[in-house]
Amino acid sequence: MNSASSTQTTITLFGGVACVLILASAIGALLKWRVAKGQPNAVIDNLNSRVNAWWVMVAVIGLAFAFGKGGVIVLFYLTSFYALREFISLAYTRRGDHHAIALAFFIALPVQYFLIWIDWYGLYEIFIPVYAFLVLPILAAVGGDTRRFLERTSKIQWGLMVCVFCISHVPALLTLQIPGFEGRNLLLIAFLVIVVQGSDVLQYVWGKLFGKRKVAPELSPSKTWEGLIGGVASATALGAALSWATPFTPWQAAVMALTICVMGFFGGLVMSAIKRDRGVKDWGTMIEGHGGMLDRLDSVIFAAPIYFHALRYWWVP
């Protein structure tokens, strides 16, 4: 597949997403005019703010794609940085943790993305789970503060794993060498983002329309079995429909989509459990209508490493 064809496929995908957003914007404007009569309405205003935020996010992703590998790595480096900041801001820390936090932000984070840039797979897969995992508690222990030591250390380790290690597997998709798919790896990222984020949206829609039975009311009261089944099934069908932009056949794309959607759902539950533990509704207010960076990426965090390794060991000889 030549570069021109790859570019055309990418443009087609973004064009399709833009059409969906145009339709969503038109529906939001119509609801604001006909239902809300131009007056404040919590549900409609939230819908419109979410659509507006999606316009911004799609534009940012499109800009990163235009700059190729470098643009994508920089985008997800910044994404990891802001996600880690949100995570650490809700964690209980003390003065003795400052060196460990500094290492997480200013050494572990840039080194992880540098290793992906130079495609050193053998090291970027163990750098954080092994080396950073061991060094962080050492630095915290050297600080001499033993109060709630295990809790403090584990939270920093967890933050580094989910916000840097897991998220970094999205740009790591660019390092894969898939026979017959050379030069098209950006489409692997597009597939992941569209399917997983599409699953989130479709679960919300199905849940609002038909949701009755709660999946985990104490963790995420808005998630229902009807929304889960309808959303994941719809996103699986979406993944199969996008097989033309991937190295997969339709049934393979469906299996891959089902896998990452299920992992995305469980990722959302885990991250919701952490929020409930900290007593907050959202991770932050960075993205209007979506909360913080982690609120938008909670499903991608768990899906990305599974997707990456399924591709590496399934498709790469």
TrEMBL record:
- Supply the alphabetized keyword list: Membrane, Nucleotidyltransferase, Transferase, Transmembrane, Transmembrane helix
A GO term, aspect molecular function: nucleotidyltransferase activity
**In which domain of life is the source organism classified?**
Bacteria
Q: Which residues cross the membrane?
A: 12-33, 53-79, 100-120, 126-144, 156-174, 186-206, 227-245, 251-274
What's the name of the protein? Phosphatidate cytidylyltransferase
Say if the entry is tagged with keyword Lyase.
Answer: no
